[in-house]
Amino acid sequence: MIRVLVIEDDPAIAEIIEYYLTQCGGYAVTAVPDGTAALNAVASPSEPFDIILLDVMLPDLNGVELCSRLRRNIYCPILFISCIDDEEVIVSALRMGGDDYLVKPFTCALLQARIEANLRRVQMERRSAAPASLHFAEFTLDPSDHTLEKNGCCYSLSPIEYQLLCFFLAHPGQYFSLQKLYEQIWNRPSLGDTRTVMVHIHNLRKKLEEDPASPKVLVSARGRGYCFRATPL
To answer: What is the pLDDT of residue 193?
Structure first.
């Protein structure tokens, strides 16, 4: 059973989502109307949630800020669902730890497809045996809890950040365009949406690099794309 937490203050929308996913079978949905209830729900659940659907406009907390707070303790995918189709808000939501962003109105079928795509990435990762900690001159990656240690500081990686880093680790020294990275990580054509990849690379660089403005580990070259150049120990 896939456990879904829906954080949505519009009861009609929450009810539609809950009804649809329940009718699809295989989903157990918990719906809460605000950020406070969401934090309580994830603090001591009987079982951890597999995915979170998060609205931006909530009565007590901004959804983007709530996402940042949730990311301190959870790893599961966070899919934003919002009527706000504004680039600045979308970028901020992704930078704060969101994995995906879906603009209302959307069909229930599209929502389910996005849920399945985000869960599929995590499930594929779990089916692979987690290697021991990976040590580089610049950082150490612990796959068991998806954390990265650099200069004595520990950083939690979101699912997308972790999957991006693992992809680069598997292809050191190779350049990949934003379109190719989108297709590899999201498993669907980019259709020109490279902004999402750029935001997650920005997030990853803040945790990998000594100076994110002058990257040495996750470098880029005009016309070639992005390349991973850490030094293994």
So the answer is: 75
